[in-house]
Amino acid sequence: MTRSRSFLTAAVFLAACSLAQAEQFVLFDVTFTMTKADADNAKPSKSHYYVKGNLINAGRPRDWTAPVDYRNGTAHVRLEVLDKPAGDAPTTWTICYIPNKGKGNGYGCTGTQVFTKAGVYEKDVPMKSFWQNDAIIWSEGIKQMDLVIKDDSGGSGHAHKRKDHEKFFPTKVRITVVQVSAGSKYDAAKVPGLSTAPKTVSAEVASPEAVNCCAGN
C-alpha cells in the first residue's frame, strides 16, 4: 500500500469514527415574535412559523438511521417563553417534522409542554412516541420544521382562531430542538448559548400521546 493511499484510508477511518461517536446535534434554535398579523398571514397555513433555509441546521444528517441512529433516539425540546400576554391562557407549540420523503400523511409531530407563563420548559421525546413518526422515511432526512401556536384544546386549536386572541399574541419565544442518538443522553453544555439561559422552571419526560397535528386554517 502506498503512503498516500494509507493516509487516505486512515483519514476516512478517523472521519467515520468521529461521526459514529456523535451523540447529538442542534436541529434548529430560533428566537422570534409571533403577532396576530403574522399568524393570519402565514402561508400556506395560519398560526405557523416555518423553520427552513438558513433557520435549520445545514449540517443535519441526510440519513437519520446510520451511521448514527437518531431515528431511535430522542428529541430534546426546549421552549423559552420570553414574553407572553397577560391572562395566563394555556398555550403550546406543535413541532412538525417535514421530511424529504414521507408516506401516508407525509409528516409527523410532537410539541412543547402547555404553558401559561414566561419561563423555560424542557422535555425529552422518544422519536418513536410522537404522532405519525412512522409517516417519515428517516433515511431520507428532514427538509424543514413547522411550528404551530395553539391553545390546549388539541390538534385544531390554532391560536389565530381564538376570539380572545389577545391572550396569545404577541408572544416571543426561543424554541430549540436537539436530536440525541439512540443510547445517548442530552447534554446542555454542548448547545451554544444555553450557559447563561434562565433556570428551567418545568421539565418532564414526554408521554406518547398523539398531538393531532398539524395543518389547517
What does this structure look like?
The protein is mainly beta and 217 residues long. It has one domain. It has 2 helices and 9 strands. It has a 5-stranded mixed sheet. The longest helix has 18 residues, at 3-20. The radius of gyration is 19 Å and the shape is globular. Residues 2-20 and 205-210 have low confidence and may be disordered.
What's the short version?
This protein has 217 residues and is mainly β. It contains two helices and nine strands.
Helix-strand layout with pairing:
Blueprint: H1 3-20, E1 24-34, H2 36-41, E2 48-51, E3 74-83, E4 92-99, E5 108-111, E6 119-126, E7 142-150, E8 171-180, E9 202-205
Parallel strand pairs: 6-9
Antiparallel strand pairs: 1-8, 2-7, 3-6, 3-8, 4-5, 4-7
- Count of helical regions: 2
Number of domains: 1
Which regions are unreliable across 5 or more consecutive residues at pLDDT < 50? 2-20, 205-210
- The gyration radius over C-alpha positions equals 19 Å
User: What gap, in angstroms, lies between the N and C termini?
Assistant: 63 Å
Q: Using the alpha-carbon principal axes, give the shape.
A: globular
Helix percentage range? 10-25%
Spatially, the strands of the biggest sheet line up as 1-8-3-6-9
* Overall residue-averaged pLDDT value: 85
Strand content: 25-35%
N-to-C order of helices and strands: HEHEEEEEEEE
> Class by helix and strand content?
mainly beta
* Beta strand count: 9
The biggest sheet, with number of strands, parallel, antiparallel or mixed sense and barrel status, is: 5 strands, mixed
